[in-house]
Amino acid sequence: VVRRPPEIPLPAALPATRLVLALDNVADPGNLGTLWRLADWYGLPGLVLSENCADPFNPKAVAASMGAFGRVPVWPGRDLGAWLASLAPEVGVYGADLEGDNVHKLHLQPAGVLVMGSESHGLSPEVGAQLTRRLHIPHGPGGRAESLNVAVSAAILLDNFFRNS
């Protein structure tokens, strides 16, 4: 039996200096836990969850986090569109988009907010409107898959943020 950690206030200035992962309506607890584990792997200061995300303390999410639930703060139940709109204008807000810039050709710094959308619908319009840069993960030569899992996409994008740091 584990006790939920106390909620830590979401520091307003945090995204200006570090990269934060935000999840917009990620419904599958296994995906949420895997994304939490990625946040732990890359040393992110926390995970911001929209109001309609899976419960981060669902047993499947906790198991998939592989211990990250005890190391990486989570801020659930946020109005992501409003929170992103409240950030300073110089804070980069990034999201995956099929029409975005090829992430492999960019030199990204690990600061700002990386937003990952729901498994079936992507980013909500309110959150998508706050993006300052849209990122695209290109297919490999001959690649035919229609899409990638949200956690796989996040891993590729996070690796590109930290590749040059």
Quick recap of the structure?
The chain is an alpha/beta fold and 165 residues long. The chain has helices at residues 14-17, 29-41, 59-64, 80-86, 125-128, 150-162, and strands spanning 19-23, 47-50, 74-78, 93-102, 112-116, 133-136.
Task: Quickly list its features.
six-stranded parallel beta sheet, globular, 165 residues
Commentary on this structure:
The protein has 6 helices and 6 strands, in the order αβαβαβαββαβα. A 6-stranded parallel sheet has the order 3-2-1-5-4-6. Helix content is 28%, strand content 20%. It is globular, with a radius of gyration of 15 Å. The chain has 165 residues and is of the alpha/beta class. It has a domain at 41-79 and 131-138 and 146-165. It has helices spanning 14-17, 29-41, 59-64, 80-86, 125-128, 150-162, and strands spanning 19-23, 47-50, 74-78, 93-102, 112-116, 133-136. The mean pLDDT is 92.
Described by strand count, sense and barrel closure, the largest sheet is: 6 strands, parallel
Mean pLDDT: 92
How does the helix and strand content classify structurally? alpha/beta
Give the termini distance in whole angstroms. Answer: 38 Å
Q: Could you say which overall geometry the principal axes of the C-alpha atoms support? A: globular
> Strand order, biggest sheet?
3-2-1-5-4-6
User: What are the low-pLDDT stretches, counting only 5+ consecutive residues below 50?
Assistant: none
Output the helix-strand order.
HEHEHEHEEHEH
Please give the radius of gyration in angstroms: 15 Å
Report the total helices: 6
| Estimated helix fraction | 25-40%
Strand content: 15-25%
Number of strands: 6
